[in-house]
Amino acid sequence: MLMAAGLGTRLKPFTDILPKPMLPLMGVPMAQYAFDAMERAGVGRVVANVHLQGERMKGLLASLERGSMELSVSDESALLLGSGGGIRQALPLLGKEPFYLMNADTLCDINLAALMDRHLELRKRHGTTLTLAVFRQAPGAGNYTEIRLDASGE
Q1: Which of 50, 88, 122, 149 is deepest in the core (most CB within 10 A)?
Q2: What is the pLDDT of residues 6-26, one digit of tens each?
Q3: HEC string of 31-71?
Q4: CA distance 10 to 110
């Protein structure tokens, strides 16, 4: 699932021109980076939620390179549902299998296929329903707190 329904308030006035997931980084719309990562991981269908400029976003998302991935849209134009509500509304489009949850405006260098392999292993062993990818150590010296793992990585 690609979370693409935000308001883009922190990047105004740029988001008055383009929704945040479509703002370019090095000439490439931010959402394209997420599509590329999902395609590399073998994802067959992307479900994206939209809110701000909903109809326009549908067209913009459809115009991105997706390889053989199918695109479905969960429309929140009438009411922004937030992260949990957006996922809940999209569940019928997502199906029963495990899925990735990615933000359309965030860059991350992570091996999604390896993450899914680990999730499926933990699901089989412990009944895990959610696997969160985190940095082993907070990047930089910012004000954010990291999640610390024990030596086994669990």
Answers
A1: 50
A2: 888 888 898 899 999 999 999
A3: HHHHHHHHHHCCCCEEEEEECCCHHHHHHHHHHCCCCCCEE
A4: 26
